[in-house]
Amino acid sequence: MVISDGVVKTVSCSGEHSFSKPNQERIRLLKGLGVEGDAHMGETVKHRSRVAVDPSQPNLRQVHLIHAELHEELQAAGFEVSAGQMGENVTTQGIDLLGLPTGTRLHLGDAAVVEVTGLRNPCGQLNGLQPGLMAAVLGRDEQGNLIRKAGIMGIVLAAGEVRPGDPIRVELPPEPHRPLERV
């Protein structure tokens, strides 16, 4: 099942384990690995905290996506944030990323496909970017459950180049849908 489409606003990549990622004209997604040249590319985990626990874990965080609407929300709250600063590889617009179920496939541009694995768990490094930013990307629902707003993570199912302006087609998995959990 396909739901509303969106667009790629920005793409970002860094070969170093830096928190922010510089914007690029294009990125190349590699099947089973992630973003070519990115420090988090690989079949097994590359995030330092996860490597320290178990370096053989599968990398469910090959691609980080954030919705541009989060940047707008944070800017309205007085934060100065822009695409790539919070470590995302792809900034989207027009898709409720946080409302997608686990296993959703995002078709980016002509060929690339990313399968959504879960929510990004925001970390204290956000406060290094700007004090209070970590709290600003966390919230609570009506039942008091924690809401993580810092984007979603995925794995690359099909390779391809992704550029700003590329369309995003959303393909939902078969029901029953499983809500996103942190990965």
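[next item in queue]
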Amino acid sequence: MAAQVLAVHASTTHGFSKFEEERVLLVEGLGVHGDAHAGRTVQHRSRVARNPDQPNLRQVHLLHAELFDELMPRGFPVFPGEMGENITTRGLDLLALPTGTRLRLGAEAEVTITGLRNPCRQIDRFQPGLMAAVLDRDAQGRVVRKAGVMAVVSAAGTVAAGDAIVVILPEEPHRPLEPV
């Protein structure tokens, strides 16, 4: 299956989940037009409290629908947009991509992956036990964060469900994703 956009979401408020939209407009250097997390500087409230001047490396949250497939049989009914992502993907292993990977979404929009989403306690408020379900350990005992990736908008454009995703890898050596 070719990588594609399954759904797009936005919210004007700083709630946990986002609302499904027919399409979203990505604005270069800012994020999703009208979304509470759009901006050149950090918009997540906990991060603003620490340093409101830091750059916003979390303009767009992308989450792979395959995570929902994993969570449902474990007793966690989760659907697109409910974990706060702006773009839900299908057919792309987001977590395996290196830092700096560009994703062309549809005809013109492009995002550059900055790192992993670091899940917070809001996940357990949404569904008790979900935080542990989106964290794992690899063979070396390191924490594996499965709650998607964060990106910045590197080219403006409209994104809608069904749009193709083209992966553009950065030059080697590749750097693995770290939490941002």
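[queue empty]
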